[in-house]
Design brief:
about 100 residues, alpha+beta, Molybdopterin biosynthesis moea protein, domain 2
Amino acid sequence: MLFISLDRAQDGMKLSRPATNEAGVVLLEAETTLTGPLIRRLLRVGVRSVCIVGVADDAVVEELLAQLRKRFEMTRNEPHMALLESVVAEYIEEFYAQ
């Protein structure tokens, strides 16, 4: 499974988890195949990302870790922030290894 920004979604991609709105209401069930009209409707109601079937390649994981490092670069010398960064990095690596 792979979380992607909805603006990167394409026709034919299949949801691995239900698409929900901010209130948690299910808008599309897992296993739904996305189409252009469905993607546009989700965008109109404020959905920003979806979880699709597929495995993240190494480039995706590296990009996420690079973004994480950038976000924490100003606080890296603070022990609790360094710990938080390492926990989040570990979570990303484990999550996308599935």
